[in-house]
Structure formats: C-alpha cells, structure tokens
Amino acid sequence: MAWWKAWSEAEGKSVTGALNFDPTPDAQTLYKAMKGLGTDEQAIIDVLTKRSNTQRQQIAKSFKGQFGKDLIESLKSELSGNFERLMVALMYSPFQYDAKELYDAMKGVGTSESVIIEILASRTKAQIKEIIKAYREEYGSDLEEDIKSETSGYFEQILVCLLQGERDNATLYVDTALALQDAETLYAAGEKIRGTDEIQFITILCTRSATHLLKGMEK
C-alpha cells in the first residue's frame, strides 16, 4: 500500500483545502465528470486532491443533496483499479480507510491476512488506537474480537498483541545493545534449537519498532 502512505502523509501535511470553499459547484463538477458515457478523470482529480478531508465530506453531502446519489458509490461505479481505490480512499480519513480495509479483509468467506498484517504491523501506537475507534464507530463491532473470530493460533496472538498498541514507535535513535540482544534472543529461540520458542518471537516482534528490528538484523 505505498499509495496509502503517500496519501496519508499528504492528508496530514499538505492538503489544507480551498479558500472561499463552496461544495455546491464542486459536487456539480463531479456529477458532470461521471455523467453519461466516459468519465472525466482529470476533473475528479482536480476536485478531490485539492480539498481537505473536511471539505470532501461537505462535497459528498452536497452531491447527495443535489443529485440523490452517494458520491463514494458513484466513484466505485465509474472508476476502476488503483485509481478507483485512491479516489475512494480520499473520501475517508486515513483511520477510517484502515478500518474499512480491515473490515473488508475479514468479511465473507476467507480472510485477507496480508491486508491485516500490512496495516497492523506498520501503524504507530496512536494510529492503532484511532483505527480501533474508527472501526467501532463505523461497524459497531470490536476489532479485536473480530480478529479473534477470523484468525487462530500464533497468528492470532501476534495480531492481538499488535492491537494493544505496545509496539515502540519508529525513531532515528536505536539502542544498538538492546537490538543485538534481541537478535541473539531470536536466534536462540529459533535457529539455535530444535523447534521454535514462539513466545519469544511474539514478544519481541510485537513490542519493538521496525527500525530496532532492522538494526538487530544488520549484525
């Protein structure tokens, strides 16, 4: 989800929205861009990427009020591929979109484990808390309980552990001595013995930052 990272960073830093904003003409522009045969993708880009998330929510409300249609559903109907995913993602906050991706990964038959791993293993403590909150607000369900019902074994334990938000945030500073100690612990728990001490792996992988783990792997 490299595109998600670029989008979420833009949401947090650079998209400040339009001055003298009026959602009515923006909604009309989007409607015209998707009306009839063909789609004016550039018009959609020009509107959605130059408005703040709050402004996009107002546009969606105006779109429904003027045309009786849901903007997100219209985007899904008219667009496809990664372009559709990105434009639809813009209509959510990053936390809401993560919650949606997790929900979609677990609904129906089967579970998209790669999506769950990518989200939970790459978000900060604060982001995990916001995702849990957004999931509960949007779907009226507890994310941890849903994950427990859809996964099992050590995989379930790792995911539940990550949900507790105990993992260190990534920083430029890494305690090299501790990173080396952790690397030795993992080696002793895996390669050095017959079988594997899964608890050691779970404890370290779920509480140390990515930069910390990478430092240990360098040695």
Description:
By secondary structure, this protein is mainly α. The protein has three domains: about 1-90, Annexin (Annexin V, domain 1, Orthogonal Bundle), CATH 1.10.220; about 95-165, Orthogonal Bundle (Annexin V, domain 1), CATH 1.10.220; about 175-219, Annexin V, domain 1, CATH 1.10.220.10. The protein is built from 14 helices and no strands. The model has no long low-confidence stretch (mean pLDDT about 85). It comes from Eurypyga helias (Sunbittern). Keywords: Annexin, Calcium, Calcium/phospholipid-binding, Metal-binding, Repeat. One of its GO terms (cellular component) is vesicle membrane. One of its GO terms (biological process) is endosome organization.
CATH architecture heading of the largest domain: Orthogonal Bundle
Shape: elongated
Question: CATH H-level name of the largest domain... which superfamily?
Answer: Annexin
The proportion of residues forming helix, as a percent range, comes to 55-70%
Average pLDDT reading? 83
Head-to-tail CA distance between termini: 29 Å
CATH topology of the largest domain: Annexin V, domain 1
Number of domains as seen in the coordinates: 3
Low-pLDDT ranges? none
SSE class: mainly alpha
**What order do the helices and strands follow?**
HHHHHHHHHHHHHH
* Name of the CATH class of the largest domain: Mainly Alpha
Total of helices: 14
Largest sheet: none
Radius of gyration: 21 Å
The amount of beta strand, in percent, is under 5%
Q: In total, how many beta strands? A: 0
